[in-house]
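Ops channel
N.P.: pipeline sanity check, posting one input/output pair.
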């Protein structure tokens, strides 16, 4: 019996209805699978639905129809508390705006998922310092975000996304606010984590630098998946 894919999205559609406005269809019957260990991207221009799809895969948004499964378990439609617990245990997120907590240092930001999980202080600090070392930020562990460059903040965000050993890291336009040299350096880090630490990455991006690194690119256009 073949092993279930890490992620399966089945016939995902998403329609938004703004008050007093016509319905807007963001996604139309999108189906795709991702296996463990992938370094893949969902590509498309602005408005193509790629961020919406990534949010649905990450249970941050719910599909209008269709379902999302992780290793054969349906996670779309979970009650809010169960969905939040699933995200905390199984998923890592990287956002284009970094989303670091300003009053926390780099190491405190990196260990924050472990705080939420109730991991003892000494263990979570050790794990946070370890992953900061993986992304080249251990020497800046005590700096707050306002003393870090954009690229350094995004490296801390990468560390935070992997510290709890998630099944997959979902990265939404992670290089959007970075110059090309900094973006390339960040992609080097994520490629290394994928190859050496077996971290699974799924990107949403229209950045050619990201798409050229991805080993598989899925293209969305007007909310529909283009034929392979």
């Amino acid at each position: 019996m073949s092993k279930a894919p890490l992620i399966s999205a089945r016939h995902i559609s998403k329609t938004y209805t703004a008050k007093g406005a016509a319905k807007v269809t963001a996604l139309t019957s999108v189906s795709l699978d991702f296996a463990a260990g992938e370094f893949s991207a969902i590509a498309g221009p602005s408005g193509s639905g790629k961020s919406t799809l990534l949010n649905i895969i990450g249970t941050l948004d719910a599909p209008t129809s269709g379902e999302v499964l992780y290793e054969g378990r349906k996670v779309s439609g979970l009650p809010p508390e169960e969905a939040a617990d699933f995200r905390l245990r199984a998923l890592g997120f990287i956002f284009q705006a970094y989303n670091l907590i300003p009053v926390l240092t780099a190491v405190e930001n990196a260990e924050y998922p472990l705080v939420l999980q109730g991991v003892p202080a000494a263990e979570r600090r050790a794990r946070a310092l370890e992953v900061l070392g993986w992304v080249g930020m251990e020497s800046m562990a005590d700096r707050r975000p306002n003393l870090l460059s954009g690229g350094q903040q995004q490296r801390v965000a990468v560390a935070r996304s992997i510290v709890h050993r998630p099944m997959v890291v979902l990265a939404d336009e992670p290089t959007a606010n970075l110059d090309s040299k900094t973006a390339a350096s960040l992609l080097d880090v994520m490629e290394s984590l994928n190859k050496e630490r077996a971290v699974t990455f799924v990107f949403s991006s229209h950045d050619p630098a990201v798409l050229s690194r991805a080993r598989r690119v899925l293209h969305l256009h007007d909310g529909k998946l283009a034929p392979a």
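N.P.: looks fine end to end. Helices lie at 50-57, 80-90, 106-117, 121-134, 150-162, 180-197, 208-213.
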